[in-house]
Design brief:
about 130 residues, mainly alpha
Length: about 130
């Protein structure tokens, strides 16, 4: 009987290192050791942890944050290189190395809107 190795299965990502270790490593790389810097590093670490979340919406939002300009703003605010942060997230398997396939968070209701608009217009014409 063959078993599927979770590291080779594309849908399953289990991080190699705990998030506390990653957070401590990032804190050592920060320029200033003030409470605000610790808060920003904690926020970045939480985004990394959410990338491996089982909740799809949380995972999608965290991956968007990790790949967007917002990470660059927050990381440079405390003296971290955003590329380094992304590389750490990828090597510890919190973030997938490829761009995820994103689906809309909400179902599109354009057909429903068109149908309701037609109903309202037909009621106005009758009156």
């Amino acid at each position: 009987m063959n078993t599927i190795d979770p590291r080779k299965h594309a849908g399953v990502r289990k991080p190699l290192v705990g998030i506390r270790a990653v957070s401590r490593m990032l804190l050592r790389s920060v320029d200033a050791s003030c409470p605000e810097a610790r808060l920003i590093v904690a926020m970045i670490a939480q985004a990394m942890e959410d990338c491996a979340s089982k909740v799809y919406v949380d995972q999608l939002q965290a991956e968007r944050f990790m790949r967007s300009w917002r990470l660059e703003v927050w990381a440079t605010a405390v003296g971290l290189d955003p590329g380094f942060v992304r590389e750490v997230a990828i090597k510890t398997q919190y973030l997938s190395p490829t761009e995820p396939v994103t689906h809309a968070l909400r179902p599109k209701a354009s057909n429903n809107r068109a149908n309701t608009q037609e109903k309202h217009q037909s009621r106005r014409a009758d009156a």
